[in-house]
Specification:
The chain is α+β, with helices and mostly antiparallel strands. The protein has eight helices and 14 strands. A hairpin with a 6-residue loop joins strand 1 and strand 2.
């Protein structure tokens, strides 16, 4: 990677690891689960503690930036600042509660309304993905760091990674029409995008309205930094300018070549489902 946004990457990576330690402190305790609105999912003390830690540290380190975080009520910064951080302190709370390890910390930076920098940290297994669009992406694990890049050629047989919690008939239609036989289901948008950038899957589709900008900002930046694309089901890039905070048109992530092959099917299914 180049020195572009190097300080931001360094600080966001450190904060993601610190938040990960906070999550693990709670992980094996008898923590309380608080049910929020039906479309918002559950929350735990781990979400709140990690959220408070990351938000306070970002405000201290970057005085002129906005911060929008899942467990912080005021989300107006996205419309007020040219640079705005989007934080999901615990992406995959359902998986955290199930104790299957499939949860992550997301810290992303949007500049001019577009996701530009992202850090995704999976505490269980110690895997940290970090990247800046146009400047490369790396995976750091076990004390070592290596560059990762999404394979640019579209394989003959695609491998699909999708949500463990949000499977649907729409997704099954996409899978069948694209002739996909290999499907990997797991939690956390960030972890699924990590599988993509490591080359262990070719396509990620989330055919649902149930996600938000704090879920997607960091993973989008990581995917784009690794040479991939990250869009809604219409093939359009999401905006992080405060005009909308929910990802109402689903998520698609892959290489440009895979998008070219898969998008017509995804668009048709999205239109028929009223998602686009």
């Amino acid at each position: 990677m180049t020195a572009r946004l190097a300080r931001e990457i360094e600080i966001a990576s450190r904060l993601a690891r610190e938040a990960g330690r906070i999550l693990l402190e709670v992980y094996d305790t008898d923590f309380e689960v608080i049910e929020k609105a039906a479309d918002a999912g559950p929350v735990t003390i781990a979400d709140k503690r990690a959220n408070d830690h990351v938000v306070a540290a970002l405000h201290a380190a970057f005085h002129g930036d906005g911060v929008v975080a899942e467990e912080t009520k005021d989300t107006s910064d996205a419309a007020r600042y040219e640079r705005c951080w989007f934080v999901d302190p615990l992406d995959g709370t359902k998986e955290f509660i199930k104790h299957n390890g499939e949860f992550a910390v997301h810290i992303g930076l949007a500049i001019g309304g577009e996701a530009r920098l992202g850090v995704v940290y999976r505490p269980v297994g110690d895997r940290l993905y970090a990247g800046v669009e146009g400047a490369g992406c790396f995976l750091e694990t076990g004390g070592t760091r290596r560059e990762v890049r999404i394979p640019q050629a579209a394989p003959e047989s695609l491998r699909l990674v999708t949500s463990r919690s949000h499977r649907s008939k729409k997704l099954e239609t996409i899978r069948a029409e694209l002739g996909i036989s290999e499907v990997l289901a797991m939690g956390s948008v960030g972890i699924k995008c990590g599988v993509l950038v490591e080359g262990d899957a070719d396509l990620y589709v989330h055919a649902s309205k149930v996600s938000s900008r704090w879920d997607s900002c960091a993973p989008e930046a990581v995917v784009r930094a690794a040479g991939g694309v990250f869009t809604d089901m219409a093939g359009e890039r999401y905006r992080y300018d405060g005009s909308e905070l929910r990802n109402l048109r689903g998520i698609v992530a892959c290489s440009p070549a895979v998008l070219e092959r898969a998008l017509p099917v995804i668009q048709r299914v999205g239109r028929e489902a009223g998602l686009i």
